[in-house]
Amino acid sequence: MTIRVLLADDQALLRSAFKVLVDSEPDMEVVGEASDGAEAARLAAERRADVVLMDIRMPGTDGLAATRMISADPSLAHVRVVILTTFEVDDYVVQSLRAGASGFLGKGSEPDELLNAIRVAAGGEALLSPTATKGLIARFLAQQGTDDEDRDPARAERLESLTVREREVLVQVAGGHSNDEIAERLEVSPLTVKTHVNRAMAKLGARDRAQLVVIAYESGLVRPRVE
User: Fold this and answer.
1) Dihedral sign, CA of 207, 119, 139, 63?
2) Which of 31, 45, 104, 196 is deepest in the core (most CB within 10 A)?
3) β-pair partners for 29
4) Nearest to 220 by CA among 157, 163, 151, 162
């Protein structure tokens, strides 16, 4: 299947460069371009996009607000948002992950990294740059404090619905590990890990693995550490 990509960036030159790159691939195509978040949310529905490459900083409705709009629309549950940022550590990126983004990527990334990010996000199998994203969330949450009173009690209560094995898998996901790595660590098959991950997402209302990482930290299941 062809991956339908929507480009959301207020810089026309960047959109043009991304379009040439994406359209050069046989398994993906650009189905629309937006210069602000509101337009991105509208076109995501109209053009039936699979992945939205979302600039975080745009005039008017920014990428954060647009991500929330897309995530809140049940008809767009299949849409994956990849945040594009010029900052490696940016509070807005974490907020976007909380709002429903599948991950983030630096604008200075290599072309192959961008194309791979689109495929990974479209597949919904893995968190985009898992270790980097986990570290970003950890650093941000560490700044917010690590006391129990800073944890989200609602998130913690929802963890009670998980089985012991699902909680173990969630801890591994929050550590930035792939299904294959988790399978090796827990001595089970990758298919079993995938099943546990999917069940955890369903029980916790997470759209993807990025959301699971956020939940694991916000609930206090995993404590942030700053190297």
Assistant:
1) negative
2) 104
3) 4
4) 151
The b/e string for 50-75 (b: 16+ C-beta within 10 A; e otherwise) is: bbbbbbbebeebbbbbbbbbbbeeee
Spatial contact of 3 and 49, defined as CB atoms under 8 Å apart: no
Reduced to 3 states (helix: H, G, I; strand: E, B; else coil), residue 105 is: strand
Contact 9, 18 (CB under 8 A): yes
- Domains identified in the chain and CATH numbers: 1-126 (3.40.50.2300), 147-217 (1.10.10.10)
pLDDT tens-digit map of 121-148? 888 755 545 555 556 666 666 655 555 5
Helix ranges restricted to H, the chain: 12-23, 37-46, 63-72, 91-99, 111-123, 130-144, 153-158, 164-174, 179-186, 190-204, 209-218
pTM for this entry? 0.75
